[in-house]
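Input/output pair, single chain:
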Amino acid sequence: FRFFPRSILILFFLQMLGTLASPFLLPSLYFAGHPLLLTTEGEFVVKNLVLIAAGMVIWGYETNLIKKNRR
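Output:
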């Protein structure tokens, strides 16, 4: 099912950029003293890093499909 994957991924990355900006704006909400001790909100930010990696894999797959179709 291919419903505008490039547009959806661009919107996804914009939303993730906003999510990842918040630990820099209010670090006390995400870290419990030490940078490696995360609060519950901090764990969600780490989860979003995994989602970003998955989005990058999908983006690479989509760009390869586009390149193959142009040949």
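The helical segments are 5-25, 40-70. The two ends are 22 Å apart (CA to CA).
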